[in-house]
Each structure stands twice: as structure tokens, then as C-alpha cells.
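Entry 14. Structure prediction run on the chain below.
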Amino acid sequence: MTKIPARPFDYTLTPGRTALVVIDMQRDFVEPGGFGASLGNDVTRLHSAIAPIAALLAAWRARGWPVLHTRECHRPDLSDCPPAKRERGEPSLRIGDPGPMGRLLVAGEPGADIIPALAPAAGEWVIDKPGKGMFWGTCLPGGLHERLLGAGITHLVFTGVTTEVCVQTSMREANDRGYECLIVEDATASYFPEFKRVALAMLVAQGGIIGCSSTSRELLAALEG
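Output returned:
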């Protein structure tokens, strides 16, 4: 076991049983012309998370530890995209509409792909999900939780975007299912920096009610020992 300096207490990482989770680092959220931009967001605010995630991916891959990537996307017929989601707000383009990278947030379209800098390696899990959380309605037969249990994974290290939406939702879902969770502060980002700050505070409040938080520097230094 490896002790990672974290808040509100050190996180005990179990080698081989700890998966790195990369949430929704997709072109539709990170690049101009995608769904994030259609909502009026400055997508460059997410770019700060790319280098820390890449460093963590390199560390996990060097050790042969499990990695999973998620993509928020929908079936081409949008049968898994409820009106309460598609019709919300006043974006310039809605989910399923054609854009510069194909139909927004639709599986198989270029915009739904993970950005090249963080592209999944062979053998890494890629989980398509129609909602915010990574455990609901995913593409895996039998469910993600069951597959994680079958692989002996007990600890999850969270990265990705956005902190207060899909990352926080997935981490809360994981906590409910008994996983020991850590979020890497500089490896997650939001279009709204204040939302990120508050989300991180919420996750570690009350003695780590959802989990712990650390930085990529602290985590990588501890792994190098």
C-alpha cells in the first residue's frame, strides 16, 4: 500500500486494485465547436487538466494498473436522451444537432471522441454513458460496478471534466457503492473556477464524506517513493 498526502486525511492507494478514472475528456467538451462551446462556455478553461491527466496516465500505464475512460454520449436516435436533458437552457446547438465535429454528444461522431492527447491505450476500458454519472445506463453488459468488482478494483482515482457535474456525480455514485475515492485537484477542471472550488470542498467535507483530494504532484511523488 502507498500513502498519498491528501485532504482531509492521507489516502491509502492499493497497487493493482486502484483504477485511474478519466471522466469525459472529449472533443465536444474541450474543443471549440463542441457542446461545451454551444452553451457559451470558454473551453480553454478545461485545458489545465490535460497535462496532469497525461502524467497520471503515464504512471498508471508504466505500472500496468487499470485505467478507465468515460464518454458522455447518446445513441444516434437519441432514445437515451430525455427531453429534460436535451431541451434544457438555450444553447446555440442542442444534443444531436450537427456541428463542426458531427452531431453533438452522439456516439460514433468525432466530437464524442476523447481528445488525442489523452487517447485510450489498448486494453483500457472506455465507458459510454448517457448521463452524468458513470454507473448509470452504461454500455457494459451487466453494469460497470459488477465489472469493477470482478476485476478486484476497490479504489478509484478521479480526474476529468467537469468537476462539479460528471466528475462529482461519478465520485458520489462510487462512494455509495463502497469504493475508496480520491479526486486529483489539478487533473479536473470546470468552465466555472468557483464551481470547481466549491465542488472539491463538498467532496471532502465532514471528514471526507465522499472521499479525499490530492494533487498530481503529491500523488506522483508518493508513487515514485
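The first strand starts at residue 2 and ends at 4.
Filed with the rest of this week's runs.
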